[in-house]
Specification:
By secondary structure, this protein is mainly α. The chain has one domain.
Length: 80
């Protein structure tokens, strides 16, 4: 597994602000691109926490869970 930790967020944000573009690479299916022109709110991603993958006993705190999914869904209600 390859990772960039600590993530250089200020550098990435600066690059995105100057170019107006970003590419996210992940292993999940990428069907959302065909829906962008129909969105009325930004896409919310529920992803792993930005840290190294933990020991198996701590996975439940690292992986996406129902509470984080609901938080993401509720955050979209402000765009209604």
């Amino acid at each position: 597994m390859h990772t960039v930790i600590p993530l250089e967020e200020p550098t990435l944000i600066g690059s995105i602000r100057s170019t107006g573009r970003a590419v996210v690479i992940h292993e999940a299916p990428g069907f959302t691109e065909v829906c962008f022109c129909h969105l009325e709110a930004p896409i919310r991603r529920v992803a792993d926490i930005d840290t190294l993958y933990p020991a198996p006993l701590l996975e439940q705190h690292y992986l996406p869970n129902a509470d984080r999914v609901l938080d993401a869904a509720h955050s979209l209600l402000e765009y209604a």
